[in-house]
Write a structure and sequence with these properties.
This protein is mainly alpha-helical. It has one domain. The protein contains 20 helices and four strands. The strands form two sheets. The chain has a two-stranded antiparallel ribbon with strand order 1-4. Strands 2-3 form a two-stranded antiparallel sheet. The longest helix is centred in the middle third of the chain and has 28 residues. The protein is globular, with a radius of gyration of 23 Å.
Length: 459
C-alpha cells in the first residue's frame, strides 16, 4: 500500500494560492455596489451585482507579489504573535509557567475530562461574550506543555482551545465583532434571539467535548495513536514532582497575569482595544515579570528575542494564509462567488433555503475569514433573500454566526488558526485529520437547528 506523504503546511497553502490564482482566470470578475448605511457601516447593495468587463487579469507573477503584500496586510496579527512569543520567552525564564503546570498536574492528574470540559467552557464563554480569539495565543504554550505532561498531545491541547473558542463564536451571545454587527445590518434588536443560542450551546459543546475527550483517552491509552506520534519529543514523561513549587515570586507574576487578563477584558469591552493595545498590555506584563523574577536586563532581552524568533515560521504561515483571499480580491472574483452561491437560496424554500444559507456562509468563510468582514459583505445580500424566501432575519443572522464561527476551526485562510497551530507545533494537515470529522458532526447538528428555527419562527 502506497503511503501518501502530506507536504509541509507552507506548501499546502502555496497549492491553495495557485488554485485561487487559477480561479481568477476562469471565474468572471464582478462586483456589487457599496454604500454607507445609517449606522455608518460600509455595506454592499443587494441586487447591484454586475460583471466587470475591463478587469485586469492577474499574471503568474501575482503569486509572488501577493506574499509580501499579504504579510504587510496581516502585520497586526504577525507582530502580535512575535511579541507574544517574546513575552512567553521571558515567562519560561521566570519559572512561573513550570510552577503553574506542576500545580495543575497535581490537581488534574486523574481528572482530564474536567480539564478538557473546563477549558473548552472558559474559552467558549469569552469568545461568545466579547469575541476573544487572538488573545488566546498567550495560553498555547502552557496548554501544550500541560497536556504533554498528562500523557496527551498538542492536538488535545488545541482541541480544548480551538473547539472551545470556535463554538463560542458560532453561538455568540453578545460578540460585538460578529453578532452585533450582523444584527445591526439585519435591523433586528441587538443581542436578540439569545434564548435559542443558549439552548444550542450545550448541544454543540457536548458534541465538541465528546470528540476531544475520546481522542484524548485514546492517546493516553496508546501514545502511538496520536496524530503527532512521530513529532512528539522523546524522553520520559514528566511528573508533577519534576516541576518547581510555586514560590512567592511566581505568585506575584501569576497575580500580574490575572490582572493583565482583567485589563484585557475591560479594554476590549469598554474601549474596543485591539491588537496594538493588547500588544502593549502584554509587553508591559513581560517587563513586570522580568523585574519581579530578578532576571538581568540582558538575560530578559535575550529570552525575549529567542521567544520571538521561535515564531518566525508561524508569522510566515499567517502571511501565506492571508495571501489566498487577497488573490481573489485582486482578481475581483469574490463578489462573483458570493452572487452565484446566494442564487439557489430562494428556490429551495424557507426550510432548505435556511440550511443552504448555513452552508453558503460556511463556504464563504474560506474566502472571507474575518467575521466582521463577512458580515458587511454577505448580510446585506442574505437579508433581502431571507425576506423573500420567508426564512426570517434572525435565522439569517444565525446562519452567518454558525458558518463564520465554526469554520474558523478548519479553514487555513484564518490567520488566527494558523498562528495558534504554529505556536503549538501542530502541522495543519494533522489538525485537519482531527477536526474534519467533528466539523461534519457540528454542521449536521447546525443544519437541524436551522430547520427547527424556521419551523418555530425564530426571531
Amino acid at each position: 500500500m502506497v503511503k501518501i506523504k502530506v507536504p509541509h503546511t507552507l506548501i499546502l497553502l502555496l497549492y491553495i494560492m495557485i488554485g485561487a490564482l487559477i480561479l481568477t482566470w476562469v471565474v468572471p470578475a464582478g462586483e456589487f455596489q457599496i454604500s454607507v448605511n445609517d449606522l455608518g457601516q460600509t455595506v454592499v447593495v443587494p441586487g447591484t451585482y454586475s460583471t466587470v468587463d475591463d478587469a485586469e487579469q492577474l499574471s503568474p507573477l501575482a503569486l509572488l507579489m501577493v506574499i509580501p503584500q499579504a504579510l504587510g496586510d496581516a502585520q497586526g496579527v504577525i507582530f502580535f504573535v512575535l511579541l507574544i512569543g517574546g513575552v512567553m520567552g521571558i515567562l519560561r525564564a521566570t519559572g512561573m509557567l513550570d510552577a503553574v503546570i506542576g500545580l495543575l498536574l497535581r490537581k488534574f492528574a486523574d481528572k482530564t475530562g474536567w480539564l478538557i470540559l473546563g477549558g473548552m467552557l472558559t474559552f467558549g464563554i469569552f469568545s461568545a461574550l466579547i469575541g476573544v480569539a487572538e488573545e488566546y495565543l498567550i495560553f498555547v504554550a502552557m496548554l501544550v506543555a500541560l497536556c504533554r505532561a498528562l500523557k496527551l498531545d498538542g492536538i488535545t491541547a488545541m482541541g480544548i482551545l480551538i473547539v472551545g473558542y470556535g463554538i463560542g463564536y458560532g453561538l455568540s451571545l453578545f460578540n460585538p465583532f460578529t453578532l452585533l454587527i450582523a444584527q445591526a445590518i439585519a435591523e433586528v434588536p441587538p443581542a436578540s434571539g439569545l434564548w435559542y443560542r443558549l439552548a444550542l450551546w450545550p448541544v454543540l459543546l457536548a458534541i465538541g467535548f465528546h470528540h476531544v475527550y475520546r481522542y484524548a483517552k485514546m492517546v493516553a491509552a496508546d501514545p502511538s495513536k496520536s496524530l503527532l506520534a512521530d513529532l512528539q519529543p522523546s524522553g520520559a514523561v514528566t511528573q508533577a514532582s519534576d516541576y518547581p513549587a510555586l514560590n512567592t515570586r511566581h505568585k506575584f507574576i501569576l497575580l500580574g497575569f490575572v490582572v493583565t487578563l482583567g485589563l484585557l477584558v475591560w479594554g476590549i469591552k469598554e474601549h474596543g482595544w485591539y491588537l496594538v493595545e493588547l500588544s502593549a498590555l502584554f509587553l508591559g506584563f513581560g517587563l513586570y515579570a522580568a523585574l519581579i523574577s530578578g532576571l538581568t536586563s540582558s538575560n530578559a532581552a535575550n529570552r525575549f528575542i529567542e521567544g520571538a524568533a521561535e515564531l518566525t515560521g508561524t508569522a510566515i504561515l499567517i502571511g501565506f494564509a492571508r495571501s489566498i483571499a487577497m488573490l481573489m480580491e485582486q482578481g475581483q472574483i469574490l463578489d462573483t462567488v458570493i452572487y452565484y452561491l446566494a442564487m439557489p437560496v430562494e428556490a429551495l424554500g424557507a426550510h432548505f433555503g435556511a440550511v443552504s444559507m448555513l452552508f453558503i456562509q460556511s463556504i464563504l468563510n474560506f474566502f472571507i475569514p474575518s467575521g466582521s468582514g463577512q458580515a458587511f459583505v454577505t448580510m446585506p445580500i442574505m437579508v433581502p433573500i431571507a425576506d423573500t424566501a420567508g426564512i426570517g432575519r434572525q435565522v439569517a443572522v444565525l446562519a452567518f454566526q454558525m458558518g463564520d464561527g465554526l469554520m474558523n476551526m478548519i479553514v487555513p485562510t484564518n490567520a488566527v488558526l494558523m498562528g495558534i497551530l504554529g505556536l503549538a507545533g501542530v502541522p495543519y494537515e494533522r489538525w485537519f485529520k482531527f477536526i474534519a470529522p467533528l466539523m461534519v458532526k457540528l454542521l449536521l447538528a447546525c443544519a437541524v437547528s436551522m430547520l427547527v428555527a424556521v419551523s418555530i419562527g425564530y426571531s
